[in-house]
Design a protein that fits this description.
This protein is α/β, with parallel strands linked by helices and 174 residues long. It is built from 5 helices and 8 strands; from the N terminus they run βαβααββαβαβββ. The protein has one domain: Dihydrofolate Reductase, subunit A, CATH 3.40.430.10. A hairpin with a 3-residue loop joins strand 7 and strand 8. Bound molecules: NADP nicotinamide-adenine-dinucleotide phosphate.
């Protein structure tokens, strides 16, 4: 199973504008690309905080289309939201979680943030690719792409413009 981290960030590396939750800062072109690209994945994986911030959007997706999986230390808190096979909550570590998805036959997992989940999967060596939209904004502060220090060198596969001013960069993690 391939795991692709998909995120949008400011030119200076932040996935949120200051303390504002969500991704209102991204361009219409990125929003359209993001919606379209997700259709190519059979799992979307989120952190608990991203779920709390975007709960309505994440829940709005029609069941059966894709498994949405939320990493939380307290899955029992979300029992009322859970829909087996469509919206699940787990406290499994990344390696066990990925093994379980593989065993269930899933093939393409989109790792959809936020920074803590990004770090957990990089630390477990489980990220195969990074598809990063770089928006032409500078925030000077916010949630960084990674929650914790890392020292990784990726390989650029493709780069393209998204609209007039954003860039879509696709990297392979060797
Ligand atoms: N620009 C973008 O592309 C983009 C993408 C995604 C998100 N975002 C933004 O990023 C922000 C959220 O990022 P974040 O880094 O604060 O949070 P996050 O990574 O979305 O979620 C953190 C949560 O993950 C759970 N978690 C952490 N470690 C865990 C572990 N070992 N096992 C199980 N669960 C674990 C915990 O949930 P519990 O507290 O439930 O235990 C923790 O509070 C939001 O504002 C969101 O809108 C931006």
């Amino acid at each position: 199973m391939r795991i692709v981290l998909i995120a949008a960030q400011s030119l200076d590396g932040f996935i949120t504008k200051h303390a504002e939750p969500g991704t209102a800062f991204t361009s219409p072109e990125d929003k359209a690309y993001f919606r379209a690209v997700l259709a190519g994945f059979d799992v979307g994986l989120f952190g608990g905080e991203t779920y709390r911030v975007s709960r309505d959007v994440i829940r709005a997706q029609p069941p059966g289309h894709q498994l949405r999986l939320v990493m939380t230390r307290s899955p029992e808190r979300y029992a009322a939201d859970a829909i087996p096979g469509a919206l699940e909550f787990t406290d499994a570590a990344p390696a066990a979680l990925a093994a379980d998805l593989r065993a269930r036959g899933f093939q393409r997992c989109a790792l959809l943030g936020g920074s803590h989940v990004h770090s957990l999967f990089f630390e477990a060596g489980l990220v195969d690719e990074v598809w990063l939209t770089v928006e032409p904004v500078l925030f000077g502060g916010g949630t960084p792409l990674l929650a914790r220090r890392a020292d990784l060198r990726l390989e650029l596969q493709t780069s393209e413009k998204l609209g007039a001013h954003a860039l879509l960069l696709k990297y392979r993690v060797p």
